[in-house]
Amino acid sequence: MKIGILCYPTYGGSGIVATELGMSLAKKGYEVHFISSNLPARLDITNPNIFFHKVNVQSYPLFQYQPFDIALSSMIYRVVNLYKLDLLHAHYAIPYAYAAFMAKQMLREEKKDIPLVTTLHGTDITLVGQHPSYKHAVEFSINQSDTITSVSESLKKDTLQFFNIKKEIKVITNFIDFSEYKTSDTCQRKQLAQSDEKILIHVSNLRPVKRIEDVLQIFKIVNHKIKSKLIIIGEGPEMEKINQFLEENPDLIDKIRLMGKVNELYKILQAADVFLLPSEQESFGLAALEAMAAETPVVSSNAGGIPEVNIQGETGYLAEVGNVEAMSNYTIRLLSDEELLTKMRKNALRQAQKFDINTILPLYEEMYMETLEKFNSKQK
Ligand code: GMT
Q: Probe ligand 1: pick from 89, 212, 284, max atoms within 8 Å of CB?
């Protein structure tokens, strides 16, 4: 089967899921074509079954804004025609599902067509997709998809609540490729902290939805009681809030390490003691799952789909969004009890194993087959 994957190339969760999915499909012999504005961050382009098609936006003096969606739909149309794709898979509704619908319209003019799968990832539904500027186009393009998938039960519920969706939504969760978690090759703990210090970690694209101030406040409270370090991985618009916090709390400068974007994240996750995820919204929480796969328990908010991943009192702890005090107390409890920490590390790994790619990939393959069969029988 030849599959076209449309996704963001950056470090966001939807791009990571799309890339890891495409690479696993390619390893199984599928021909996978990535259509994106740049080479996706984790993509191994050396696999002969993987192709990358860069969307080139042509600038013109008349354009106040560059028309990316038009260039994207033209590129989708060209790649489907050139490489005879069987199916398109859009990750994130805006602009991918919308542009794919336009490309399908162009193909139909030539009596051709291709089935479209749209995977909803989170903020395309819970935040930006609800804005009046986008809502109708998002709802329309979801309904025009042949198959709709969502990454959690919670996101499915939100989608049905916020939009008038006329089709079934299938839940296929995020996943972990454990073959990438080579335990023999971990980062040395001593490179990150002193031997008597605990390590707290947060990984995100530092958008307001991640509540980075809560991460910093939790650390401040925890650090009063427990000798510790905070590692922040990622880049994004809230970086300024971190700098401001450091200016106001100079005593913590040596305790907080900003690492930006890193490769081989699991090596650092494996060295950490607790992962903090106090998000305002989180459809699934891939970052938490990645931490758990590295045997790091999670202290998080209970937003969206997080409770489907992080289990209260088993793999970590959850509190209401914004309840910094509760999240700090949970972190202190976890970090001051070695036995509890060891137990939760094991539980976290066991829970993460439920989301092994070897379990989730067949669900995607089955969904592709069903989509193709239904689409072909409609064409006859
Ligand atoms: O979380 C992000 O910052 C990125 C965002 C995206 O769409 O790129 O992630 C969303 O998709 C991930 C993969 O399906 C989910 O694990 C994240 O929970 C979700 N983020 C939010 O809902 C805020």
A: 284
> How far does the chain reach from its first CA to its final CA, in angstroms?
20
What is the pTM assigned to this prediction?
A: 0.95
- Angle of CA points 139, 34, 116, to nearest 5°: 35
Cβ of 92 below 6 Å from ligand 1: yes
33-64 pLDDT, tens digit per residue, is 999 999 998 899 999 999 999 999 988 889 99
Write the pLDDT tens digit of every residue in 114-126: 999 999 999 888 8
Gap from CA of 120 to ligand 1 centroid (Å)? 9
Domains of the chain: 2-175+357-379 (3.40.50.2000), 179-355 (3.40.50.2000)
Distance 155 CA to ligand 1 centre (A): 11
The average confidence (pLDDT) of the chain is 95
Task: Say if ligand 1 is within 6 A of residue 286 CB.
Answer: yes
Higher pLDDT, 262 or 365: 365
Dist CA 347 CA 293 (whole Å): 10
Cβ of 121 closer than 6 Å to ligand 1, yes or no, is yes
297: exposed, middle or buried (Cβ count in 10 Å: 0-12, 13-18, 19+)? buried
